[in-house]
Amino acid sequence: MGERLKGKVAIVTGAGSILAGMGNGKATALVFAQEGARVMAIDCNFEAVEETRRLIAQEGGDCITFKADVSKASDWQSMMEACI
Length: 84
Description:
The protein is of the alpha/beta class. The chain contains 3 helices and 3 strands. A 3-stranded parallel beta sheet has the order 1-2-3, sandwiched between helices. It starts with 8 loop residues before the first strand and ends with a helix. The mean pLDDT is about 95.
């Protein structure tokens, strides 16, 4: 693990992947965690974003998940409150 993002918090939306493989959000969350960031992984599919959290945890990273539809302002508000 690197330390370029140590002490930082990264909020990554679209962090779940519905299909097999690695989407942009999931890959971003993993790299940020590998670089030392505490990650808040967000997706409207909670099962998919939990898989991302498990992968980060397996590598010793720190990640919490949040189910949200980023097209809704109320979800953004709840997401920010949970992150803080």
